[in-house]
Design a protein that fits this description.
Layout lengths: L2 E11 L4 E5 L5 H7 L1 E5 L6 E11 L2 E6 L5 H5 L5 E5 L13 H4 L3 E4 L4 E10 L4 E6 L3 E5 L5 E5 L4 E4 L9
Parallel strand pairs: 7-12
Antiparallel strand pairs: 1-2, 1-6, 2-5, 3-4, 3-6, 4-5, 7-8, 8-9, 9-10, 11-12
């Protein structure tokens, strides 16, 4: 079973055992359809979690899990990854991809020159930004004028970098 990280567990919220899910890219109905998750953190035994509730709070989702009914219990989940089996994650839709599908893709320019490998995605207020590791680390905005094609099957993202971006 291949697991996909769908969120980072933040701090508990309130006294009833809710935990903030950070860096979440699924909606509440999608979380509810998945229903059961695996929590993982370095040096810890993985835990199976069953979602009992979820609600929005700003850019986060507050989630409740069976067996974590008070703040102190939820605290144990802080800084762990909330994972789901890849086959249970809903399709992103035509022409769309989830962050986990983009990590590890090779980034090339429109002439085929290799720029590097996508190591991470940053969420900014304006748009996502690829963290690309090549000869040096580079930040590439994930916007239409720059990103020309994402080919998951070929494992590439083709971009047309604006003049001077590689010099920053």
């Amino acid at each position: 079973m291949s697991l996909v990280v769908i969120a980072r567990c933040g701090r508990p919220h309130g006294l009833a055992g809710e935990i903030a899910l950070d860096q979440i890219w699924l909606t509440i109905p999608e979380l509810e359809r998945i229903g059961t998750f695996v929590w993982q953190a370095p040096g810890e035994e993985p835990r199976r979690l069953r979602l009992t509730g979820a609600r929005p709070m700003g850019h986060r989702i507050l989630a409740s899990f069976e067996g974590f009914g008070v703040r102190e219990e939820a605290q144990a989940l802080t800084n762990g990854d909330l994972c789901a089996p890849a086959e249970r994650v809903p399709d992103a839709g035509p022409g769309q991809a989830y962050t986990y599908q983009l990590l590890g893709l090779r980034m090339v320019d429109t002439s085929g020159r290799e720029i590097g490998v996508v190591k991470d995605m940053l969420r900014t207020g304006a748009h996502p930004v690829y963290v690309v590791q090549g000869a040096r680390e580079m930040l590439v905005p994930a916007v239409g004028p720059i990103v020309k094609r994402v080919d998951l099957e070929a494992g590439t993202i083709t971009v047309e970098l604006p003049a001077g971006l590689e010099d920053l």
